[in-house]
Each structure stands twice: as C-alpha cells, then as structure tokens.
Amino acid sequence: MKVFLKSLLDLLLPSFCLACDTPLGPSPDLLFCPDCCERLHTIKSPLCPCCGRAYLVAPGGDHHCGICLANSRHFSRARALFLYEDPLKEVVHRFKYQGKTACLPSFAAFAKKLPQPAEMDGADWIVPVPLHPKRLRERGFNQALLLARAFFPKDRRIAANLLIRSRPTEPQTNFNGAARRTNLKNAFYVAKPHAVAEKKVLIVDDVFTTGTTVNECARVLKKAGATEVMVLTLARVKEDY
Ligand SMILES: [Zn+2]
Ligand SMILES: [Zn+2]
Prior knowledge:
- There is one protein chain.
- The protein has 241 residues and is an alpha/beta fold.
- It is 36% helix and 15% strand.
- It has one domain (31-236): 3-Layer(aba) Sandwich (Rossmann fold).
- The strands form two sheets. The protein has a four-stranded parallel β-sheet. A two-stranded antiparallel sheet has the order 3-4.
- Strand 5 (200-208), helix 11 and strand 6 form a beta-alpha-beta unit.
- The mean pLDDT is 91.
- Bound molecules: zinc ion (ZN) (2 copies).
- One zinc ion (ZN) binds at residues 17, 19-20, 22, 32-33, 35-36.
C-alpha cells in the first residue's frame, strides 16, 4: 500500500532538480539531479582549523589562515558543508527570498552523510542566528532555524529564543570590513544568560561570508558565560586566492 501511495504521489507530483529544474526519477532521495550533485562542492581539508576556510589549491595540511592569526575570533571553530557557489547559491536564494523550503530534506540528507555536523560534538545548545521580529514577519520563517532542524532533526538542544536580535540591521552584504562590524553593534543579546553560563553553544546559520555575524553572536554568548562557541553553516563563501 505504501509503495502504491508513493508511486501515485510521484505521478501526481513529479520531482524536479531544485537547481536546474531537470525532471528527476520517482521518489528521489535528493532533489538535485546527478549533474548538479556533481557540481556541489563539499568542503574538506586542508582548511583553517578555526574559521573553516578551505584551501582549494594549497597543498599540505590544515593551518590557520591570515585572518584568524591576525584577529581574535570569539568562536573556537566554524565549519560549513559546501562552498557557496552555483548551483547551491541559486537554491539558497530561492529558499531565503522566495520561501522555497523543498530544499530542506535534501540539506538534511547531506548533513547526515557529511562529517561536519558530527564534528560539532558536545554542544549543550544549538542556537540559530536570530532574525529581528520585523524581518521574521516579512519572511515568514528563520532560515537558520529551519537549517538547524534539518541538520539536527528533532534535537531538543535547538533553542530559538536564547539569542535575540534586538534591532533590525541592514543586510551585511551592503557593507565591507569595519562597516560590517558597526552594522551589528549591539544587534544581539542573550535572553537567558543563566542558561548559557558554563555551556557549549553551537551557532547555526545559512552562509558564512566574512564571519562577522557569527563572531558577534559568539562574542555576546561568551560574554554571557558560554565556555565555547562553535559555528556550523550550510555554505561558506569562496575567498579569493
Ligand atoms: Zn540539476
Ligand atoms: Zn581562519
């Protein structure tokens, strides 16, 4: 009966690749066609053990990048599943700005197969980067919370209300360098400092660009007493080499 229902569903609602709209076979595990799957660039060593920057051409092992050597990071390590480039970039855009959440089960399937979520062991709380309530109303969902649920299904450590965005901020993509930090000044606070005191926190976000946002979240969490803050994102912007 289950098989029959599945075939009926496939007939009524055929699946298409999220990135290029190619029709997919019946009941696909991933909503990416083989070509697009091939083009998804997962992040592996060698990388910066702190911020997770991938060294795409450099030989050798993991080593700290110049940015992490020169600046103090408030998180102990950040990891991402994929490089932020097409076809994933297009799918993330459709997810964030057009509400196309059909990608989430596929992201969950990738998270299950890739090592990064398991590398973030020992977290007491999983905290999605919060949206300001105004932005949340406009968008209808917090993409970071949906990703946290996809990466860690039914995980009771997910805490959506520990970290609060106290004022709306301009999108970080509008700024560079120091202006990114200024834009986020006093943008976050911890709602229940006693809950994070002496705890390890894992922050989840969609894309790691320069890391300013997650670094500011980590700073606020550490100030509230968190012993360690780690970061997991779906994707990481590819830097110039
Ligand atoms: Zn495709
Ligand atoms: Zn680094």
